Structures are given as structure tokens and as C-alpha cells.
Request: fold
Amino acid sequence: MQFEMPSLIPVLPELFLLTMTCVILVVDLFLKEEQRVISYGLVQISLLLSVCIVYLTSGAEAEVIFYGSVIRDPMGDVLKVAIYLISAGAFLYSKDYLLDRNLFKGEFYVLGLFAVLGMTVMVSANSFLTVYLGLELLALSLYALVAFDRDSKAGSEAAMKYFVLGALASGMLLYGISMIYGATGSIEFPQVAKAVAETGMDNMVLVFGLVFVVIGLAFKFGAVPLHMWVPDVYHGAPTAVTLFIGSTPKIAAFALAMRLLVDGLEPLHADWQGMLVILAVLSMALGNVIAIAQTNIKRMLAYSTISHVGFILLGILAGTSKGYTAAMFYSIVYAIMALGGFGIVLLLSRRGFEAENLDDYKGLHDRSPWFAAMMLLLMFSMAGVPPTVGFFAKMFVLEAVVSIDMTWLALVGVFFSIIGVYYYLRIVKLMYFDKPTDDTPLTAGLDTRIALSVNGLMMLALGMFPAAILSICAAAVGSV
Amino acid sequence: MTFELFVFYVFAAILVFAATMVITRKNPVHSALFLVLAFFTSAAIWLLAEAEFLAIVLVLVYVGAVMVLFLFVVMMLDIDIATMRAGFVKNLPLAILIAIAMVIEIFLVIGSGSFSLDQFAAPLPLPADYNNTASLGNILYTEYMYPFEVAAVILLVAIIAAIGLTMRKRPESKYQDPSKQVRVKKGEDRITVLKMDAED
Reply:
């Protein structure tokens, strides 16, 4: 058998990140406790260089290499850049938190980078096998990160739940994939799509496999009814890890859905659209209603994630390039919002104190008017109040749904977002109209302050000019 | 019935028996040993399907490594069977109901002829000199190189995670420090001379 070594340029970002991760792993062993900040610096440099490499290797043409295992296309490039940058932000915010709790270790960053690597493998996957391996790489790193604070009982419990349920979901996904392989005879997305288009919907095995794939996908998204792990994991994990889990993996989940359902199983659109409608409506309903009852901000943001996932699914189920663009825009914007939201939680936490309860946000305006304003922008954006970017993200998704004549679904979405506004505005009320119970000044470093300010102001800036990201997303999706 | 079919049924019967024993035995060590039997018989069935490399890997990896480790864990941990089985009878009816529903569903899909011989012709027996291992190796390191490397990275993550989560320096453990041992000198490093009063 003749083996042709493929060009490695399209996977250069992944190769570079893997190499750097291994370098950091080894370098970290030789560092003294007080020099640990060098590993952190290396991590940030690697992530930023990866962004540059993606930029240099990008191109409008999609390239398929490694015998159809990997694809490099504009959608993958945009998502990778978003993943790198938002992960860099997540590591930046979590630095002080980790230092305060003696968790500032090289393993945290190495596992985090492996998770980033897993996400990018998923983003540029072109076969079921690659997508599954990327997913496992991400999941395994996340399980370990959730349990990272070994002495925390809640953390270990959350990690255990996440691990067992995650393994079950992976099993479901694999079972579905094996059925699809049985029915189509291939694991590469283009071939699967071709075979599916030929055999059509009467093939029961195919639809049976699809159900399992959608179940696995819904678990990874955290969509109702497979959402049970989300609040527990968000609550139990160290806040720095919650921040990481809450932001970029949503972009990866979007990529997973696009690769599996659109690249691979587009001809079955009519079948999976119905399943996604159920998931989306349940997620928006349950997420928004239960979030109202939460007193812990991490749990509240977890339920809010579930409702936002419903919106991302709305965009995907539209099945038009307008819908995919809207979903992609939504997932990137949501990742930035979640980054800022948990960033504020980290900002208010300090040694021996977790700003987990809603009451800890009372009178934030008196303590720090600037960061209260940032939180205000983030909460408005999550609630979808114009002119913040969250409003436009919701609007584009709803537009896409209306344009396929599912107006009732758009109305359901609007209805539950209005319910959702209540718990976001409650935080604003606590910050501005209540007296502070705790007068400790905020102790964040300059880097965190600047990054959080940029993050908060981005909500406004992107809201003023949503076309900046939207046109990139539209161009990227248009080429799928 | 050909001889091959007969062998298949014998192994299949042993496999089902062993699998049932795994989940019904009270003693976890017995369960683990029956699992070993189940692995062996599935390896035999894979041999019948001409997948000799996978069959051998199943025995080497699962029986040789995983199950031995498993037995060690079972023997070292003090597992309280009574509490583990506390909800068994209570949840049994529901579990059986769900299992039956799933079996029927799966049977409706798989048993409906989608995978019958009309859809997929039986593969022709391969010649005796056909090498399953070589062809697997050929595609594993060429066509599936990328997934193979990603799988290797997953194993690396598993190692890092396991060490990161379990390793901690205990102050009470005793370590050897070879460099210190080598640097020991004759005289004052080994002998401490104590002054004391003469006693009668």
C-alpha cells in the first residue's frame, strides 16, 4: 500500500498547540513554586501564537487531509480563533483565584490546553471517529479539571457525576455512530451524507442511529432533558473551572452539532429538526423558569446556560445558512458573555471567600461603580436588552426561525426570554438598589481589571456593530 | 449445521452464561473471574469471525491487564456488598421493564432485516495466508494516522490527570534520597559520639 504523507500545514495550529502543551508540561517540572507564573505566561503566548498560525494558514478553500479525517475550512478557522482567544481570557481571569487557593499548578494549564486541543480537533473533524476522539479529549480533561481541588467534597462529587453521565452519553453517541456506519458503510461525513441521500429516510437503522447521536449531542450541550449534570458541575467545580466549562465548550458543542448533523446527516434534516425542536423548547422553558428559584449565582448561570443552549439549537434546527450563521454568532457571543459573567464572580471572590450567593452582589455599585456597570452590561446582554449584543444574537436566531415559517417557535423563544429577564435584572437590582453587606475592597490585579472592562464594554461595542462578527460568521458558514 | 456454526453456538452459550453470572454473583471476585471467562469466549467468537488480531488483543489487554488490575482493586478495597445491593430488589421491576422495552426496540430495528443477508452479502472466507494484523497495521498508521495520534494524546491526558489527582507528598512517608546516601562520609556522618558520665 502506497502511503502519501499529507501536507501538515492545515493542522499546524493543532500540532503547534500540542507541542507547546508538552513543552509546558516538562518546563513546569523544573520550575520552583514562585516561578510558576512562567508556565502561565507560556500558556498565554502559545494560545496567542496559535491564533496567528490559524490566521496564516487560513484560506477560503476547504482542504481535506489525512484520508478524509480532517477538514480545514473557514468555519473551523473562525471557531478555532474564538476558542483560543476566549480560553486565553478564561486563564487570565482564573489566575488570581487559583493563586489564592493554592491551585496555581502547571497541571491546571496543561489540562486546560489539552481541553482546548480537543475542542479544535472537534472543530476541524471530518469523520465520526475524529469528532468522537476530539470530544473525549475535551471531556477527559474537563473531568480532571472539575476534580482539580482535591480537598473539595463538592468538586469530587461533581466530577464523579460528570464522569459517569459523560461516559454514558459517549456510549450513546458511539452506539448511534455504529448504527450509522452500519447503514451507510462509512464514517467520513461527505460519504455518509451521500449514502444517506441515496437511501433516504425509509432506512430505520439510520434514524435509530440519529436518535442516539442527538442524545449524545444534547448531553454535551446540556440541553433538557439531558441537563441534570450542568447545575451540579457548575456549582461543584472550582469557579475558575466553571468559567472554563461555561464558555468555550459551548462553541465546541456548536461545532459538534454542525459537523454531525449538517456535514454528516444533512439529508435527514426533517428528522433531526423535530428532535431539536423538542430539546430547544424544553431547554428554554426549564432553564429560564428554574433559574428564578436559584440563590446561588453559579447555579443560576448554569440554568441560564441551559436556556441559551435552547437558542443555539433554534438556530441550528432552522437548517438554513441563515440559521447556522445565527447559531454560530450566538454561540460565540454567549461564550464571551459567560466569560464575563463568571469573570465577575471570580473578581468578587477572594482568599477564603466565594462570591457564590446572590446576596454577595448587594450594593456592588457602592463598592465599585465601574465593575457594577460591567456586570450590568453583561446581565443586560444575557437577558437580551438592546443595545447590547445579546439582543442581536437572539434577534438573528428568531429571524432565522421565522423565515422557515415556524413563527410559533419564535414566539415561544420570546416568551421564555421575557421570563428570563427577571432573574438577570434581579442581580442588577441587588447591585444598584441594595445596601452592601460586605465592604471589603476588590483585590483584582490590573490585568484582570483591564480584561474584564474590555469584556464588559465588548457587549456594548458588539451590540452597536454586530455586523463585525456576523459577517465573519456568515462568510464562514456560507462555505460549508 | 456446519461444524463452525456448532462451535459458534457453544461459545455463544458460554458467553451468555458467563455474562449472567457476572451480574448475579454475590462475591465480586467470582464476578470478575466470570468476566474473564466472558472475555475469553468473546475472543473465541472473534476468531471465528476471522478477526484474529482483535481476539488476541482482547485476551492480552482485557484479560491480561485490565481484569488483573480489576481483581487487585476488588481485593484491596473493602466493598460492602450489603449496601451495594440495598436498592436491588426495589428497583428490579422498573429495571426489567426498561430493559424489556429497550430489547424490543433494538430488536425491531436490527431484527427487521436491515442487516439481513439480502442487504449485506456474507463475506467470502479469506485465504489461509491472509494476514489480519498486517492489514490493520497498514491502515492504522496511514489512513487513520490522525485519529491514532489523537488517541495517543488522550492516553497522555489520562496519565497526567491520574497523577495530578492522586499524587501528593505525605509528610509521614519515608523516602530514600540516593544523592544524600552517596554523599555520606565516614566518621561524623555515620557515628555520633555522645559524652556521658562514667557509671559504676
Observations:
- Chain A has one domain: 5-478.
- Residues 5-478 of chain A form one domain.
- The two ends of chain A are 32 Å apart (CA to CA).
